[in-house]
């Protein structure tokens, strides 16, 4: 038997995990639960101790083994025939526990570049009452909404919109762009005489990329029209009932906030929706809306508008708006003003004044000047990065979350961004199980005292669950939200202290919007970016986009784990064998995770799915970043540890994993091409409304399912 096989898990059979809940009175139940937990935890402690022994043995073997053995093993590993921890001759199905702290790649020294700090004031000293606004508008803003002075972007933008100008607005996240367009629109609508009626239909169309942002912007309009009861705002978005929306459209909506897919479907299928009165078109998060996948739908909406009305003012906003983005959808802007708070006090005329484009035409689908202006981040945002070897990612995340949200403070609100839905599902379930608030009252008596509130949000959730998660997380003052980039844009969730990016974003733009969920409107906030050693070159790339980060050392994060482990439910018998050093504690927690995954089949499947989705997502970084983010740079066996798997799933690690990814990418490319031919819809776009073409509907559903499940 090989040395490594000595470490095969001797634990209970899979699927036996707490399946049979003991009957009897409360006292008996608690005792039985304690015994079961004690058994599992003791097992983890034993394994964490064995693990140190094991690592010594394997290290010795690796160092002293004959060269031919080493070369042979290395060759096999290279071709994926061997798990890095199963020696030749080992049982292929064997579950091997490898050391967390041995054979890790070195943590490189990061060479940060000097960052030019661009100052951007959030607030101005001017008051809303200094503007020619209706007195009720001013009193509503001051007394009900609670804002007396304007933010800098509001001060610069509102007068231009009130003059009827087309405007392109770029200002940092959380600087108040929503009111910058909402106030002048409501002001103009209330002043129309005779009064507008709801049956007139929409005067303003506000397009946003996600459902949560649609709800949020709609709520802002609802507050603003409070004194002007005859103005009716409304919201249309994928996931909601089509019939109910049609009924509301029939009654009349004057300010229509919508996601593009659902709006387009109503334009195509709801007769009562007329665009003839539309005077304002707002594209919030415009750069996102005009990206690949969204831009076709937006161009179609603009075509509808162009046919229905000629008198239109267009307003485009984003924290990462670059000049020329309007060309992406061939939007025609008439002598637009560029408001860029970071650059100067005086807004500029657009260099491409009055440029006309062909809607959706190929020539216009590239932004030519993405580097022409610098991005600005909130001054009160402290940004950090941590470099962890792949094996230690999961325990480092657990250490970070439990320290900040339980041990250090019980009032911490955190968002953890991940690249795919499967990653979100897996981490949510795992953390909920180990550290979440239990719905079983027995747990409180049982001493299970980590009790963090966990939430999840991604594009594949049922709309009602999505709405519930969003609302509950907005209202709570402590908790952790695991999410995809569906929550990266525009959301204004109160009192977020930490933004964690557990998977690296595809570029500076995504980075800026993710971290922009904290440090909003002058408040304090912090962010942490997880990197693997092979990814450290990403820091100077972010530096070039004015993003400045400080290193947080992994061992500093991990040293807090001991308190977490102490707080986890342990009875006296296991407490005696609680690990002490950082290495022991981290290994202990990793063993708890691994045992749980190993013993619970559905969790095991979820871990594998998450692992695979991570690997696939990893192959979709833009070509400019491929030298850093290439799956070949990562040891998949080590990476599997961060999914509490004892070896990488074979479907990925078979010798041709490179070919598999290539095939998958080709398939994805083909699907993307046919999708673009049939429709411009992507996840948030997918409204499920089209009634005419069932075949297309099914096709889109399939594409939506198979595509990376990114959002
Ligand atoms: N004049 C003001 N004074 C104080 N706070 C304000 C003012 N205007 C807006 N805010 C607050 O600032 C926060 C951010 O506003 P908003 O969501 O509009 O920012 P944003 O610039 O659109 O951000 P993002 O780029 O992330 O979408 C909100 O909580 C809002 O209530």
Structural class category: alpha/beta
Annotation, overall tally of beta strands: 17
| CATH hierarchy: architecture of the largest domain | 3-Layer(aba) Sandwich
Count of helical regions: 25
What is the helical fraction, as a range of percent?
Answer: 40-55%
Ends distance: 46 Å
Question: What fraction of the residues are assigned to beta strands by DSSP?
Answer: 5-15%
Q: Biggest sheet, in brief?
A: 8 strands, mixed
> How many individual domains?
4
Q: Would you write up a description of this structure?
A:
With 711 residues, the chain is an alpha/beta fold. It folds into four domains: 32-83, no CATH class; 153-365, 3-Layer(aba) Sandwich (Rossmann fold); 381-647, Rossmann fold, CATH 3.40.50.300; 656-682 and 690-710, no CATH class. The strands form three sheets. Strands 5-6-4-7-8-3-9-10 form an eight-stranded mixed sheet, with helices on both faces. A seven-stranded parallel sheet has the order 13-14-12-15-16-11-17, sandwiched between helices. It has a two-stranded antiparallel ribbon with strand order 1-2. Helix 15 links the parallel strand 15 (498-501) and strand 16. Helix 1 (26-64) crosses helix 20 (582-599), helix 5 (177-191) crosses helix 6 (211-224) and helix 12 (421-435) crosses helix 21 (601-618). The chain starts with 25 loop residues before the first helix and ends in a 5-residue tail after the last helix. The model is unreliable at 1-24, 51-95, 350-371 and 675-700 (pLDDT under 50). The structure holds adenosine-5'-triphosphate. Adenosine-5'-triphosphate binds next to strand 2 and helix 5. Keywords: ATP-binding, Helicase, Hydrolase, Nucleotide-binding, RNA-binding. Residues 126-155 form the DEAD-box RNA helicase Q domain. It comes from Mytilus galloprovincialis.
């Amino acid at each position: 038997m090989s040395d490594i096989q000595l470490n095969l898990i001797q634990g209970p059979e899979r699927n036996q995990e707490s399946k049979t809940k003991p009957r009897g009175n409360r006292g008996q139940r608690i005792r039985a639960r304690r015994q079961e937990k004690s058994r599992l935890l003791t097992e983890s402690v034993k394994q964490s101790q064995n693990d140190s022994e094991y690592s010594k043995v394997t290290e010795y073997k690796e160092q002293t083994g004959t060269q031919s053995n080493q070369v042979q093993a290395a060759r096999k590993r290279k071709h994926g025939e061997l798990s890095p921890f199963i020696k030749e001759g080992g049982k292929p199905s064997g579950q091997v526990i490898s050391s967390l702290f041995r054979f890790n790649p070195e943590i490189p020294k990061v060479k940060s570049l000097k960052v030019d700090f661009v100052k951007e004031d959030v607030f101005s000293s001017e008051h809303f009452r200094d503007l020619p606004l209706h007195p009720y508008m001013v009193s509503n803003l001051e007394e009900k909404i609670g804002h007396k002075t304007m933010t800098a972007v509001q001060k610069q933008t509102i007068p231009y919109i009130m003059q009827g100008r087309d405007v392109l607005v770029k200002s940092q996240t959380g600087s108040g762009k929503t009111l910058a367009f909402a106030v002048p629109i409501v002001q103009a609508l209330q002043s129309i005489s005779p009064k507008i009626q709801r049956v007139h239909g929409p005067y303003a169309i506000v397009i946003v990329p996600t459902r949560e942002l649609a709800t949020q912007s709609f709520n802002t309009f609802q507050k603003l029209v409070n004194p002007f009861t005859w103005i009716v705002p409304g919201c249309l978005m994928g996931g909601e009932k089509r019939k109910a929306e049609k009924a509301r459209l029939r009654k009349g909506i004057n300010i229509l906030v919508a996601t593009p897919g659902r709006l387009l479907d109503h334009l195509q299928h709801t007769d009562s929706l007329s665009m003839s009165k539309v005077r304002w078109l707002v594209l919030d998060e415009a750069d996102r809306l005009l990206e690949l996948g969204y831009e076709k739908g937006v161009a179609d909406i603009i075509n509808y508008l162009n046919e229905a009305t000629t008198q239109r003012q267009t307003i485009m906003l984003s924290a990462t708006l670059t000049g020329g983005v309007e060309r992406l959808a061939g939007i025609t802007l008439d002598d637009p003003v560029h408001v860029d708070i970071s650059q100067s006090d005086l807004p500029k005329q657009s260099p491409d004044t009055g440029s006309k484009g062909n809607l959706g035409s190929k020539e216009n689908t590239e932004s030519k000047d993405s580097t022409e202006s610098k991005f600005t981040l909130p001054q009160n945002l402290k940004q950090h990065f941590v470099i962890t070897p792949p094996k230690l990612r999961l325990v480092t995340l657990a250490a970070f979350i439990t320290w900040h949200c339980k041990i250090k403070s019980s009032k911490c609100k955190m968002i953890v961004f991940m690249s795919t839905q499967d990653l979100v599902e897996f981490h949510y379930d795992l953390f909920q199980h180990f550290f979440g608030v239990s719905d079983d009252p027995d747990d409180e008596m049982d001493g299970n005292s980590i009790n963090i509130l966990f939430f999840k949000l991604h594009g594949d959730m049922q709309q009602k669950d999505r709405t519930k998660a969003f609302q509950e997380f907005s209202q709570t003052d402590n908790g952790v939200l695991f999410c995809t980039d569906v929550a990266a844009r525009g959301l204004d969730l109160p009192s977020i202290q930490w933004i964690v990016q557990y998977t690296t974003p595809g570029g500076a733009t995504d980075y800026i919007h993710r971290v922009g969920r904290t440090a909003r409107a002058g408040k304090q906030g912090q962010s942490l970016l997880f990197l693997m050693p092979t990814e450290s070159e990403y820091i100077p790339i972010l530096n070039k986009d004015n993003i400045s980060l400080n290193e947080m050392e992994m061992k500093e994060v991990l040293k807090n784990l001991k308190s977490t482990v102490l707080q986890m439910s342990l009875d006296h018998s296991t407490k005696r064998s609680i690990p002490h050093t950082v290495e022991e504690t981290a290994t202990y927690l990793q063993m708890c995770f691994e045992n749980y995954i190993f013993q619970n089949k559905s969790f095991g499947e979820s871990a594998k799915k998450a692992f695979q989705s991570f690997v696939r997502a990893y192959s979709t970084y833009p070509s400019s970043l491929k030298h850093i983010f290439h799956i070949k740079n990562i040891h998949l066996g080590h990476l599997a540890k961060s999914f509490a798997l004892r070896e990488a799933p074979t479907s990925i690690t078979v010798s041709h994993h490179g070919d598999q990814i290539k095939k998958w990418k080709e398939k994805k490319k083909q699907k993307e091409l046919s999708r673009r031919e049939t429709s411009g819809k992507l996840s948030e776009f997918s409204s499920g409304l089209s009634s005419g073409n069932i075949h297309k509907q099914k096709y889109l559903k399939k594409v939506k399912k198979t595509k990376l499940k990114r959002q």
